[in-house]
Design goal:
By secondary structure, the protein is an alpha/beta fold. It has one domain: Rossmann fold (3-Layer(aba) Sandwich), CATH 3.40.50. 22% of the residues lie in helices and 28% in strands. A hairpin with a 5-residue loop joins strand 3 and strand 4. Helix 1 packs across helix 2.
């Protein structure tokens, strides 16, 4: 799986990176957004969702309590947060099979806790908090490097 590493220095840069990633995503796609609380997963999701034409960033919030947010008319995007889920059986009870069999993009926060549930060709985006506004973002499984003008260039760019 190919990897790129990018640093963003603001919320706006993280959203812009998400827009650029969206342009490279296959359909359907499963994208695991991996990182600690506050690392920028939902901020990146805002850009991806906007880049896919499914919603504006201000319409996107963390689905921590609702578990799944659905966006888009036509092309569907599901933003899923598994932070409060304890078992794979609970994830499946959310209707995951139906979502995986749709032609949608699934953005999954905390999905790394259930690796057995995802297709082999899933995409992983790891976000790491470096300082107040700076994030290091490693993107695995998205071909091409549409990120060269966002933040600092990193490895693989």
């Amino acid at each position: 799986m190919s990897a790129s590493v990018v640093r963003t220095r603001s919320e706006e840069e993280t959203i812009e990176l998400g827009r650029r990633i969206a342009g490279r995503l296959p359909r359907p796609a499963v994208v695991l957004l991996i990182g600690e609380l506050g690392s920028g997963k939902t901020t990146l999701a805002k850009g991806i969702i906007q880049g896919l034409g499914a919603a504006d960033p201000e319409e996107v919030s963390s689905p921590t309590y609702t578990l799944i947010h659905e966006f888009g008319n036509g092309a569907r995007v599901y933003h899923i947060d598994l932070y409060r889920i304890d078992t794979a059986a609970e994830v499946l009870a959310l209707g995951l099979d139906d979502l995986l069999n749709s032609n949608a993009v699934l953005l999954v926060e905390w999905g790394e806790r259930f690796p057995q549930l995802w297709p082999e060709d899933h995409i992983e985006i790891r976000l790491r908090w470096l300082e107040e506004n700076t994030r290091e973002i490693e993107i695995r499984g998205v071909e091409g490097a549409p990120y060269s003008t966002v933040g600092d260039r990193g490895q693989g760019l």
